[in-house]
Amino acid sequence: xxxxxxxxxxxxxxxxxxxxxxxxxxxxxxxxxxxxxxxxxxxxxxxxxxxxxxxxxxxxxxxxxxxxxxxxxxxxxxxxxxxxxxxxxxxxxxxxxxxxxxxxxxxxxxxxxxxxxxxxxxxxxxxxxxxxxxxxxxxxxxxxxxxxxxxxxxxxxxxxxxxxxxxxxxxxxxxxxxxxxxxxxxxxxxxxxxxxxxxxxxxxxxxxxxxxxxxxxxxxxxxxxxxxxxxxxxxxxxxxxxxxxxxxxxxxxxxxxxxxxxxxxxxxxxxxxxxxxxxxxxxxxxxxxxxxxxxxxxxxxxxxxxxxxxxxxxxxxxxxxxxxxxxxxxxxxxxxxxxxxxxxxxxxxxxxxxxxxxxxxxxxxxxxxxxxxxxxxxxxxxxxx
Length: 385
Fold this sequence. Notes:
Elements lengths: L3 E5 L5 H10 L3 E6 L17 E3 L4 H10 L5 H22 L5 E5 L4 H9 L3 E5 L5 H14 L9 H13 L2 E4 L2 H9 L7 E3 L20 E6 L8 H10 L5 E6 L4 H7 L7 E5 L6 H6 L3 E4 L9 H7 L4 E4 L14 E4 L4 H13 L1 H18 L3 H14 L1
Parallel strand pairs: 1-2, 1-4, 2-3, 4-5, 5-6, 6-7, 8-9, 8-11, 9-10, 11-12, 12-13
């Protein structure tokens, strides 16, 4: 079996994958845009196997944190260059046959070079097909009265070339897989490999309060994540002591939509350290994820591991993680009424919430952390060698 090289501009799920590849003696290098000093807490991967090309991505990271550049056009250019240049850099560094696993939009040049050297190129896409995603988001922004400029056309063009060139395309959910097939990609080219979760950090450590009903949200408050559908459902929910606990940055669109609305009983925590989320999951009665589009939101596995039932749309990878009516509820997108009905059932039936919580903790034992993810990826690599 050939050695594995990975490209991922950020961490995402790729450092979990790199640990799995290292555990199996397959990892040669993981190439990243993160500066090395930001990766000191990564364990299970020898530092000698982490290669950093941080020159452009560091600017992008600093800009997102401090808002240094206000021009959307310039920011799009920086994001494009960060992915394009690390791709070209890795292409110049690869000199022997390998299996390249590159996050989409950053593997075209290195993937072609890999194939020329007798190796294999796997395009790893964490979301739905990029053109499907773009069309869905343009439609969703319009529903709320906003104009969405769309994904950078350069990125769309490059990703579709990657889909064509790659030996295999990996996606994390059935929803993502179907989006590729809908866009004309052969099912034979697509491999679904479901993400794991960090169960060393996420497990049930407390119980929800008995004097209120707590709904929990983690993630960016955005049009894509469907926050306003949860807001509408929460307003309809009947409970004298309801509480919506929100963790995540608020986008300008959501700020504008909330400006004229009541936020009573909603607590905005903005940013919470990842290590502190287990307590919040554990002490919430339900976690809600009404996203319009995601490949597979890993927060769902985190919530389940903490015994927190999940309400999520079909477009989040939920169907690959849990069963509707057992560990939570799987609902259509754009349906605040469905969210409200599920919440009301949990409010009105305390035993149901307890049963779902117990089922959630049992379900995560089958997910098996990240080991199953690593095993499935290893099988895919073996199958194409």
